[in-house]
Amino acid sequence: MNIESLPEDQRLVTKPNLCRAFDMTRSGIDKLAKSDPTFPKPIKFSDSRQAQCYFVVDEIAAWLEAQKAKREVA
What is the DSSP letter of 20? Predict the structure, then answer.
């Protein structure tokens, strides 16, 4: 499956790639998710603790836009 052929709202990013994009550690992303209830929830395709976490790219983008909007209001 070609990731580029997926609709924008179905594209996923792994947690390590999200860490690189945000220039944060895994624990930094975890702390952000715990402290901000609006941060997008990950998707796991297994019940295992070690299962890879994925985030929906559209949800991350929408969250970032909301953060930018908050910054502009303040």
Answer: H
